[in-house]
Amino acid sequence: MLGKVEDLPPGSPQCSVEGGPGDRSLRFRARGLAGAPAASLKFQGLPEGVQEGLASSVLQAVVPAHPRLSGVSVTCLARHLVTTRTCTVTPEAPRKVLLHPIVEETRSGEAEVALQASGCPPPSR
User: Fold this and answer.
1) The domain containing residue 77 runs over which residues?
2) What is the pLDDT of residue 49?
3) Shortest CA distance to 86 belongs to which of 36, 41, 46, 34?
């Protein structure tokens, strides 16, 4: 009697994107499907030449941050023997940058001005 060699994976892969150190890069992550054997993971939509790495069933790719990436959808394909499922993330640049001046008086009586910048995320979809 032969045993079952594959299990239909439940659900879909999970995708995310977050800013890297100093917000100079974007880190795309995708967690695969459960099931046996494990699904193969691949990103579509990343700039050419970007290296992907798989560790502990999580696919990662780090991309230098660039305004051209704003609004570009990146899809993860999770291919299993019995099905292919996807998840998609779309990074978006802030719509505005707000500057908050911080003024302090130094010991010598001079004014020291610093600008604290923060981004306004786009409206939720």
Assistant:
1) 14-93
2) 85
3) 41
